[in-house]
Task: structure prediction
Amino acid sequence: MKIYAVLLAAGTGSRTGIPIPKQLIKIKDREIILHSLEIFLKSSIKFEAVIIATPPPHVFEFDWNDFFKKNTEKDQIEKLRIIKGGATRQQSVENAIRYIESITHETEIENTVVFIHDSARPFVADYELHLLLNETAKHGAAFLCSGVTETVKEINPDYKNKFKTLIRENLISAKTPQVFKFKLIKKALDKAAEENFTSTDDVSLLENLGLTAVPIRADDINIKITSGLDIEIAELLMEKFKKL
Result:
């Protein structure tokens, strides 16, 4: 089995209010993207490569190759593949899947698995990667998730009161990594392109095929760094994460 990781880092992180992509913001004196990259480079799962989708040069001019060369151990740098990301998350995933297809022999595609992960999620434990891989091997796809602790209301002008309260016990919050057998995510992306279907996560692409993925409860520490407050929270969580 060939196993690849895709690290999505093409966003600019405008919601943080900081004039650089959030993946380059430092937590404990180290850039967020390096913490997230370490999840895969130091995993006991032997990844063939980690494909990093970075912002196109016209969006953010930065020497990513030099950055990773300076900040990655010599015995690990050969596993990195830097590619140009797209204008959207889905386009970045498409670019990464096309790249994997180009470097994988057709006889190996059937047994190829892809982990897709947000670079702004630096808190994923190795045991979670193994759970994801095991469920994907059995069922074709799996993803990390968490329960919803707040009451969620759907806004819709067609409702009499414009709000509909959803049943919290029936809701989960999708996280990453989201993991797929290669042929499955490729088929889902192809169908989405044909139908001009867009989504904010990869499991939704699978749902568009009429299929589903196995949800696995993530550790509560698996937050996505989006705002300035999240950066402060991540500073506090890093010490706890290192002890997992």
About this structure: Residues 142 and 217 are 11 Å apart (CA to CA). The mean pLDDT is 93.
